[in-house]
């Protein structure tokens, strides 16, 4: 038999606050992933043009951005299934934090004034292999590609935090789902009072010409009676 009206009323519903948080977090995660994907794709293209070899950390962040973009598109709508993927949100949070840490470790606190930036990212992004090394008087803030690299670092960190918040939200909704979406009884099980007598045999109707036989009863102790 299908679910009864009581069972349907016990199914969890997603509140307006949870939906509002979801429709903010998922598009934000999508936007961050697309921005990082676009900037890293441009960097990889320029690095190939410069023929200086690909950095494995950039490739890792690029692949992660692709996965994150597809995941955000798939679960962007605030339906129940989009909240049940909280474990995946946790994994993406960890992976994005790793990506941010790996990229930030390349430059350290100097960022665009570091050796790696001037000899790798900036060398390819600024096409210094063609135009020559820029004027040393330039500030590292206005060096070619500096702003793009900083954007990659910033959005890598922000998208990781967004996935952490999505994981927390999904865990809350999932816990409510498992607590509420449980039927009290099924069509095969009936709940009865423990103090009520429990019939062991059905009453036997008196037959013509024979004595009347009363139904036998005994006190039951089971709460749930399994019916055939």
From TrEMBL:
Cellular component annotations (GO), alphabetically ordered: membrane
Keyword Membrane: yes
InterPro entries according to UniProt: Marvel
Principal subcellular localisation of the protein: membrane
Residues that span the membrane, as ranges: 28-47, 59-84, 90-108, 150-173
Keyword Lipoprotein: no
Subcellular localization, as worded in the UniProt entry: Membrane
Keywords: Membrane, Transmembrane, Transmembrane helix
Chain spans, region Disordered: 206-228
Residues annotated as domain MARVEL: 22-169
Pfam families in UniProt: MARVEL
Topological category with respect to the lipid bilayer: Multi-pass membrane protein
Identification of the protein by name: MARVEL domain-containing protein
Coiled coil regions in record: none
């Amino acid at each position: 038999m299908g679910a009864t009206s009581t069972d349907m009323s016990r199914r969890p519903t997603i509140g307006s606050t949870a939906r509002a948080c979801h429709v903010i977090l998922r598009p934000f995660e999508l936007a961050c992933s697309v921005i990082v994907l676009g900037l890293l794709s441009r960097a990889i293209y320029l690095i190939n043009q410069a023929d200086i070899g690909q950095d494995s950390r950039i490739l890792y962040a690029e692949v992660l951005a692709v996965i994150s973009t597809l995941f955000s598109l798939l679960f962007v709508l605030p339906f129940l299934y989009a909240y049940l993927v909280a474990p995946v949100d946790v994994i993406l949070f960890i992976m994005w934090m790793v990506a941010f840490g790996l990229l930030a470790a390349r430059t350290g606190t100097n960022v665009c004034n570091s050796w790696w930036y001037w000899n790798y990212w900036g060398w390819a992004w600024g096409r210094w292999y063609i135009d020559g090394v820029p004027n040393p008087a330039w500030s590292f803030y206005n060096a070619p590609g500096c702003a793009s690299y900083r954007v990659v670092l910033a959005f890598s960190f922000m998208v990781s935090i967004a996935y952490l918040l999505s994981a927390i939200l999904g865990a809350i909704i999932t816990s409510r789902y498992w607590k509420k979406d449980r039927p009290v009884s099924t069509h095969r099980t009936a709940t009865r009072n423990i103090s009520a007598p429990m019939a062991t045999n059905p009453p036997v109707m008196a037959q013509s010409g024979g004595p009347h036989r009363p139904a036998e009863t005994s006190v039951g102790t089971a709460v749930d009676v399994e019916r055939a």
